[in-house]
Amino acid sequence: MKKLLLLGAEAIAQGAIDGGMSGIYAYPGTPSTEITEYVQNSKIAAERKIHSKWSANEKTSMEAALGMSYAGKRAMVCMKHVGLNVAADPFINSAITGVNGGLIITVADDPSMHSSQNEQDSRYFGKFALIPILEPANQQEAYDMAREGFELSEKYKTPVLIRITTRLSHSRYGVVVKETRAQNNNSLPDDSKQFVLLPAIARKRYKILLENQSNFLEESENSAFNKYFEGNDKSRGIIACGIAYNYLMENYPDRNCPHPIVKIGQYPLPKNLINKIYNECNEILILEDGYPFIEEMIKGFFDTGKVINGRLNGSLPRDGELNPTIVAKALGIDTKEGLPIPEIVTNRPPELCNGCSHRDVYEALNEAMKSFGEKRVFSDIGCYTLGALPPYNAINSCVDMGASITMAKGAADAGLIPAVAVIGDSTFTHSGITGLLDAVIENSPITVIISDNSAVAMTGGQQSSATGRLKEICIGVGAEPEHVRVLTPVPKYHTEMVDVMKEELSYNGVSVIIAERECIQTASKKKKEKSKE
Amino acid sequence: MKKDIILSGVGGQGILSIAAIIGFAALERNLFVKQSEVHGMSQRGGAVQSHLRISDKEIASDLIPYGEADLIISVEPMESLRYLPFLSIDGWIITNTTPFINIPNYPDLESLVTKINSYKNVIAFNADEVARKVKAPKSSNVVILGAASQFLEIPLENIKSGIKTLFGRKGEDVINKNIIALNAGIEESKKYIIT
Fold first, then answer.
1. Alpha carbon distance A249, A240 (integer Å)
2. pTM of the full structure
3. A414 touching chain B per CB within 8 A
4. CB of B10 within 8 Å of any CB in chain A?
5. A140, A289: one domain
6. So what's the ipTM on this one?
């Protein structure tokens, strides 16, 4: 029995490889990035010719994976929680078309928003799509669920959602790996109309999905990932989902919790186990590393049943991730406190690296904006979002991938002129191009600054989709060539940069300024690798 | 047997390397090891921490509960204090005193070191200087590991083996430099009384 020390993310990747996957499709996003990187660096994956190149965004990833599934092979799509928002259209509809080759969507949620814009809970998306959800409690389960998930998917021709959170994704533990299964051969869907969602066909497919709900429930009720642990003290019953089960068990070092426990690892909720614990116990405590998703369901609109303790009645904090101490408090167990952090300790907020090209862009932009007005720089998601903090305080919005350009356009429509957008190269190819098209069609008086460091930097320096071709793309979309300017953001060109920015800010139409300089982190990594050769 | 360790410092200072060395050593002893780290935005500024849990039994939580950490091993002085809420009553702080100053309002170093030494069980010294003295200037992190090694309940030979596993690809020279750094840290820590 071979044991590997794997991050939760890596366990899923290895599990998928051992499950006979033929392709993994993803866009980088913390805490999901490492899943795809593991496959990209895996020798076995290379030997098996498993597709693992990055996609332009999560929607194209989802669609490509669905295409691979159509052709009979097993595919996995990976993303962070907000990435599922981007992939939502094909995701929801993949449940209606159903699949051919097994299809797993792995979403990594980020409770406490360590690296995200929100802490939304992807289990709602699984419920929304009416598909089975698997939620591992530890690294071994993550491996097993990925490996066996394709079988579940092919049994009912349904996509399957695996949901993890940051603390599992970025934590290492020993995993027993099993034999690697063969990949599928090419095959076509039996039903030639299965994937055609014309209303008449979609209504039939939807009925099939609805009929499958009882099958998915049966799978959950018989699932090895859902367990009932007996307990003599029935004053309280505990339902613990995913990683929350670990935090619960941390408080009972000899695994001697006196209360009955239902451990949830597969949804829809197993009615048999939930009914049993509800009937046997006086009160129920519900532990979820995310929204009070189950808690709300079980409490019900009228809340006239037994007392349900959780985030909604203050037994647990309403927001943020769980940890063993929070769970201990909800259990009424004495907790230790350690020592307070002394006042001498100051914050080290995240900041741009020394020598980062974004710094030079913001220095120039701040100076150029002085004569044009304040609070009108709309920005986006990437390392450059740090421009919101001191010393630059240069940007005024960051909402979702690509929103910089489109919000600037909308603000200009409202009369805020000039409106500026600051976006990175990867964010631009992810979802900025369509926004630029909108602006070009109406020749909106906006200035788009693409701070191009030729990398998906914040997530670790993955390859950007269109390095070297941004100018062509902007002109191809219809921006006027005279108003697509290319600059090199370095201190010695500061004055030129300010001048160009001022010119374009004064122009009453669409301007694009591309500030090109490679990310210093990726550049230095490449240098190190080259010197080794 | 259990050891809960918080490793702390600033990004790029080799915290994850120390975590890996201890992890490899523990695995060699057939102990269970759980190690968590931070990626992405949480990494970009500086403060980096890792929860490293070692036990002879299966480990439940990936995060160490407050007040349960046996050790805070830090390669940066201010960072050694940031995780005090995790430290147990008899827990030890082992820290470098060379500061990493990337913020305008970094505290006065003398006050900081005084504050560090005011706690019960502390080993605080200039690991950068020790590393320089033994001609291993890039290995101040391993010096700190050496100073902490007496508290790990893992035999030295396993820790040295961990160093070989981690740095194996970089060749004999690098391995030897790090073993020298480890020994220098051990020597340094002998100046402190163990309670």
1. 10
2. 0.96
3. no
4. yes
5. no
6. 0.93
